[in-house]
Amino acid sequence: MNNAGGPRTRAAVRWSAAVGAAICARVAAGELLYQVLAEDGMPTPQTVGRWAKDRAEFGRALAAARRRAGRSAKGGGVWTYCQPTADEVFERLCEGEGLTSIGADPTMPSLSTLFHWRRRFAEFNKAVLLAKEVQAEQLADAGWEMVRGATPETAYLTHVRLTHLRWMTGVMAPRAFKPKPVEPQVQETTTVLLRTFKGVKDPVTGEMKVVAFCPNPETGQMECEDVPGWTPPEGAVLIPA
Q1: How far, in Å, CA of 96 to CA of 80, rounded?
Q2: What is the mean pLDDT of residues 133-159?
């Protein structure tokens, strides 16, 4: 798929009953609509889709032509790969249109056909993924505009929209926009014991001496550090009173 040269440009084709009749006749004869419209001198699929919506008589004639050819009146359902149509899908995706919307366009292949193309033609699937990345960039820009335009009254609504937008960009372009989960930091606990010093009489010599007392962090009881075998709790920091 050659998208390096940018979007294809085609001369605009104005509506005329003759052009509409020619399109319907070729479709009724069995030609695929999106292949007919790929020819030079024919309107674009978007143009024909607009004609079908705005001109009820043409829309009914196009639907009838599809039925005469043995296909659904809504379009699609054809598995034949068409490069110009694939290019059209890429351009419309880059402009922000969804693949579901494109598949619902009566002038384009159905959604199931487009997904079949993605599975079968690696180049087309690569182009769709690239177009999704373009859409994600546009959504990111739109999110920044939302932030800039937010007011105290619209702050909550902006937050809701940005949350969904963040999810959408992550789905469309996970390599660029999907946030990485952050492991919660484990808070370290430090036990601080305040030592108290008292003068006590030595039971052996009868002399006064200074002895340190420290609270037990588990029981809260004061313990004399002069007791044989006494050790401070592991990791405790002793601060003189």
Answers
A1: 25
A2: 86
